[in-house]
Amino acid sequence: MRSPVIHVAVGSDIGRRYSANFDVTYLREQPLLAVIADGMGDGPGSAAAGRTAVDVFVDHVTRAPEPGPDALRDAVAAAQARVGRIGDELRTLAGCTLTAMVATPQGYWIVQIGDSRVYRLRGGLLELLTTDHTMAWLGAVHGWYPFDSAQAASARYHLTRYIGLRGAPEPDVLSVTMRPGDRYLLCSDGVSEQVDYDNLRTFLGRGPQPQSAITALLTACDTAGGNDNATAIVIHVD
User: Fold this and answer.
1) Residue 128: helix, strand or coil by DSSP?
2) Which residues, 6+ apart, have CB-to-CB distance to 13 below 8 Å?
3) Is residue 104 part of a domain?
4) 84-87 — which CB contacts under 8 Å span 24+ positions?
């Protein structure tokens, strides 16, 4: 596989709600390895889960003799096991989301567990490539309650899959083909819940360098109230 030329940037903002930032990132440009974890809650289990999940996932991916979809699932399973032990030791909730984009000899892959997201801007169309593993997503798809209802808002915080959940649920692993001009956004829900679709599309299309999109996204989150930690990774395919 001939790797496309890409440019990347990452940024995070603590926001105004929490006293600490419970989002964790890892970013390597070549070969691409981009990871975001968003801790659940604001306690020690949240902080430990996010940091541990990212470290374990990155370690397993970089050491895999044949990185590919099976190795990515194994990396998530290893993170599940480690974070599960942390929850047992702390006797408190230890959990986080994990969303990643990884270059392998077989191509590019998205790994998704939880409600952080991956978007793609291609030809002016902004698409959400991942599924939120929440009861709110299931409710919206199946029409259980109005999208803007109080029930839907509450269901956003009921995750059906995450790192640290009993039973160690598997991630979604999706194949992605990069094309010249593509722009990708990996973000925690602190971005997707505070920046609407039109602004996401506008900011991703702004400027020749991904850092300009990061700056615009985090500024918009702050303007919206800074109600959560907000973290984004932007990837431009040259």
Assistant:
1) strand
2) 21, 218, 221, 222, 226, 229, 230, 231
3) yes
4) 84/164, 84/166, 84/168, 86/45, 86/48, 86/49, 86/52, 86/164, 87/45, 87/49, 87/164
Q: Taking the model in full, what pTM does it have?
A: 0.95
151-177 per-position pLDDT tens digit: 888 898 899 999 999 999 999 999 999
Task: Count Cβ atoms below 10 Å from residue 45 Cβ, excluding itself.
Answer: 23
Question: In the block, which residue shows the tokens 């698409």?
Answer: 127
Q: What is the DSSP letter of 222?
A: H
- The total domain count for the chain is 1
Tokens at residue 148, please?
């803007």
Range of the domain at 198: 6-237
Give the span between the Cα atoms of 159 and 185, in whole angstroms.
21
Q: Judge whether 1 lies within some domain.
A: no
